[in-house]
Design a protein that fits this description.
By secondary structure, this protein is α+β, with helices and mostly antiparallel strands. The chain is built from 20 helices and twelve strands. 48% of the residues are buried. β9 and β10 form a beta hairpin. The strands form four sheets. Strands 2, 6, 7, 8, 9 and 10 form a six-stranded antiparallel beta sheet that branches. A two-stranded antiparallel sheet has the order 1-3. It folds into three domains: 23-198, no CATH class; 202-270 and 293-358; 368-524, no CATH class. Bound molecules: adenosine monophosphate (AMP) and magnesium ion. Residues 269-270, 279 line the site of magnesium ion.
């Protein structure tokens, strides 16, 4: 006869088993269609899984049973201790250019793709672990992740999502009950990450570097089926894929630039084919506007400085283009490659214009302009450039300046003026901007659109994930087990456009000396 404790234990296990069987409706195309592109692998079991974070809204979007997954039973799954039915965990192979140097083999060293689900919108989404133990790609790494960096993935991913920027998102974070050895001993964690896919530029580089044309073609066709299905079966589909990635990356980086986001480690293995932001390691938001800003402790040369991001995106696109060239050519015969080269180069050359258009579209909205300037007028790009130059010269907080420009549009100029020392320069620029707004109103005719201040407040955030707030939240969670600051911050960044009293503390920049000394570290 079992005693009460065993009975309770058995009931808990029964709950976990039931949950494993019923939670995810996996349909794993990567495992099925691309054998040889990965190593099937199991997550390492951990001693004491405990839930830290669960993304209820995302769970519902994925059609999951949120109530069932939120508690301890869910933690056993999200720690990798109970692999849900239908999951086919695997470590993906990929290569990558890191800070310009090529590593022919990186791969999922501490990550596993569990499988794919179709969300409520009919979109296929990857469910993956990060920090789930060593894999054959781990090299010297321990395969683990710490609480702080995994919660950083949560905060930054949710902040970007709320800003309308394509991003991977965190579904759950659990603590493992295990120490992780870094410069200090830290509590271990596993992140469950949701992505449109984990295909990277580096995935293509892996097969290209090995001259494996057959696998390269299968990979490209898989990517096309997944992200650009309209190209399936077309003759020029591989060039089409390159164009589509160019378009998505141009749009993504333009959005980063318009909110002042610095990714920090734009290696080709962190550059997605889907156009989602991935890998929130040494990333951070700008405060005072300075295009040369670098926060990452490992970016000594400033390769991934704020202003370099569009150039790096183009460079990464060129690396993808090199891998696709033999597919565009139809073979890797030298004469054929030479003939195909101009068509590929044309796509890379067009990146600057694609990016410029995406940036300007965003800037126009931020400036409160509904229409492009007439052809005989000074271009809007010049107006935006002059504004940014002003912010740079006066070291003004990027986010606050844009937001208070909306107040100026509503007739309240004082909050904006308070940010600037040089009142005359600001006034001169404002006069230009007001003239442009008037012209825009005349061009107008769009009666369905909201008043200008309202439109501007819908695109210029009041709250971003400020560095000192992120740091404060992660330190409290990691060192003191206190999740309250993390939860409050998460709440704030999930409503970036709402200017309520509760949001106010999250809208304040860090003291300048804090920002000057701020360093971010690769997500370990
Ligand atoms: P990242 O800097 O996170 O983009 O990772 C770059 C490469 O290092 C990838 O191949 C990762 O899988 C691998 N990696 C990073 N941290 C670890 C770790 N703690 N254990 C094993 N592999 C790791
Ligand atoms: Mg990475």
């Amino acid at each position: 006869m079992p005693n009460g404790a065993t009975l309770a234990g058995a009931t808990a296990w029964a709950r976990v088993i039931k949950l494993c069987m019923a939670t995810f409706e996996f349909d794993n195309t990567y495992a099925r269609d691309l054998p040889g592109f990965y190593v099937p692998w199991k997550p390492a079991a951990v001693p004491a899984p405990r839930p830290l974070f669960f993304n209820r809204e995302l769970a519902l979007e994925l059609g999951l049973d949120a109530d069932a997954l939120a508690g301890d039973a869910g933690a056993a799954i999200f720690a990798g201790n109970s692999v849900p039915e239908g999951a086919e965990p695997l470590a993906q192979a990929y290569a990558g250019h890191q800070f310009g140097g090529f590593s022919p083999q990186l791969g999922d060293g501490r990550a596993l793709l569990l499988g794919e689900v179709i969300d409520r919108q009919g979109q296929r989404r990857d469910i993956a672990f990060k920090g789930s133990g060593r894999t054959p790609f781990a090299r010297g790494g321990d395969g683990k992740a710490a609480v702080g960096p995994m919660l950083r993935e949560v905060v930054l991913g949710e902040a970007m999502h709320a800003l309308g920027i394509p991003t991977t998102r965190a579904l759950a974070v659990v603590t493992t009950g295990e120490p992780v050895y870094r410069e200090q001993v830290l509590p271990g964690a596993v992140l469950t990450r949701v992505a449109a896919s984990h295909l990277r530029v580096g995935t293509f580089e892996f097969y290209a570097a090995r001259g494996d044309l057959e696998r390269l073609r299968r990979l490209a066709d898989y990517a096309i089926a997944r992200h650009d299905p309209q190209l399936v079966g077309t003759a020029d589909r591989h060039l089409g894929l390159l164009r589509a990635v160019a378009r998505r990356q141009a749009a993504l980086v333009a959005q980063w630039m318009n909110v002042g986001f610095i990714h920090g480690v734009m290696n080709t293995d962190n550059t997605t084919i889907s156009g989602e932001t991935i890998d929130y390691g040494p990333c951070a938001f700008l405060e005072a506007y300075d295009p040369t800003t670098v926060f990452s402790s490992i970016d000594h040369g400033g390769r991934y400085a704020f202003a370099n991001q569009p150039l790096v995106a183009r460079w990464n696109l060129a690396r993808l283009a090199e891998t696709l060239l033999p597919l565009v050519a139809g073979c890797d015969d030298e004469a054929a490659l030479k003939r195909a080269l101009p068509r590929v180069v044309e796509v890379i050359d067009a990146f600057g214009a694609l990016y410029g258009e995406a940036l300007l579209r965003g800037q126009r909205a931020k400036l409160g302009l509904a229409h492009a300037a007439p052809a005989d007028d000074a271009p809007d790009a010049a107006l935006a450039d002059a504004w940014l130059a002003l912010l740079q010269r006066e070291a003004v907080d990027h986010t606050l300046a844009w937001r208070r420009l909306a107040d100026a549009a509503a007739g309240d100029e004082a909050p904006l003026r308070a940010l600037f020392g040089d009142a005359a320069a600001l006034q001169a620029w404002l006069a230009r901007w007001r003239a442009r707004c008037s012209a825009d109103d005349v061009a107008g005719g769009d009666r369905s659109s909201a008043p200008r201040p309202e439109r501007m407040r819908g695109v210029n955030p009041y709250v971003i994930a400020r560095n000192h707030r992120v740091e404060e939240a992660l330190v409290a969670a990691s060192q003191a087990g206190d999740l309250a600051p993390f939860e409050r911050l998460l709440d704030a960044v999930r409503r970036p456009f709402a200017a309520t009293p509760a949001q106010a503390p999250y809208a304040e920049p860090a003291p300048a000396d804090v920002t000057a000394a701020y360093r971010t570290f690769c997500g370990t």
